[in-house]
Hints:
This protein has one domain. 76% of the residues lie in helices and 0% in strands. Helix 2 packs across helix 3 and helix 3 crosses helix 4. By secondary structure, the protein is mainly alpha-helical.
Amino acid sequence: xxxxxxxxxxxxxxxxxxxxxxxxxxxxxxxxxxxxxxxxxxxxxxxxxxxxxxxxxxxxxxxxxxxxxxxxxxxxxxxxxxxxxxxxxxxxxxxxxxxxxxxxxxxxxxxxxxxxxx
Length: 118
């Protein structure tokens, strides 16, 4: 969704891929780097895949296509998360601290890295 926010012309002069989405992505990656180098490396791979797909979708359909698609994925992910927390029997921790919004993906990436034996 952040990719659809209009960017200043200066951003486009720097690079066609420089937008609000990439700025936020870099900040999130720095956070993961501070947590753990293996997590950071896992998220670099994931970020490149997602950013490339996002950009391809944006180039083909523009903001009017990307925004509803992104909102649909966001809503489905939240529903899935609440179903998971319901099964687990625990309240989502991010209601206490917004930092937990970034810890959840780190926990999942840690699980993925263990499965691939990194």
